[in-house]
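Troubleshooting: if your tokenizer reports a length mismatch, compare against these two reference records.
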Amino acid sequence: MRTKVFTYKGYIGIESNVKAEGLLNDPKKKGQLGFVVNAEFVDIQPKALTLLKKIKTSADDIGDVDVFKDSKGRVVFSWLGGPLKGFKPSGVTGSNTYDASLLKSNKDIAPSDVFVKVVDGWLKKK
């Protein structure tokens, strides 16, 4: 499975798996805070990339979402949390090296049914 990034009603969704292609860490291991994926194996919807570029950097070494080049020159996409994550760009920050301009959109993918239900549930509570 490839990691997918999409948008629905202004929310960014990330869907992955503990056996996803391009994983650079083992999210099941104790001490892991999230997922770290080689961006070459991430399908990003064009609208989602536009929203990722709106995420602000922070003063911290770790962000809720992160994009950077590693020591091997690979573009890395990472996030805190589990295999399904949803958020508003204004509700999270990237690290002090966050650079979404390193990413490329490559597919116009639809949000998963699970993500649509979750976001619709959030919006009903407002």
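Reference record two:
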Amino acid sequence: MKTAHFIRPDLTSSQDLSSAALSYTTSINRKFKLEQILLKFSVAVTEKITITVDSAQGANYDVILVERTIVGQSNFVYKPEGEANFQAGDEIKVQCTNANGTGTAYLTIKTSEM
């Protein structure tokens, strides 16, 4: 039996990479499905992006979903390849380095409610 999914409002954040790296953790606190994560940069950047499950079970259960270094790009999209269902208390953490210290990162996380 299929589960109904209802789109939730986008979660957004931004970070000026000239002042600090991006580190954003959701606070959804209910069951959800991860639809996609979008990162848009104000200029082409070369940075490392890490997306992690921050498990409700504790740090020993945290899992990196994707870790990628982008080179001279202004967009990054992560979309799970299969079902990405999360329990209440599980969160998503998105990090982007600021090794080159230029531009602003604009983050959008799209989820749906289960």
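Descriptive notes for reference record two:
- Residues 19 and 107 are 16 Å apart (CA to CA).
- The radius of gyration is 14 Å.
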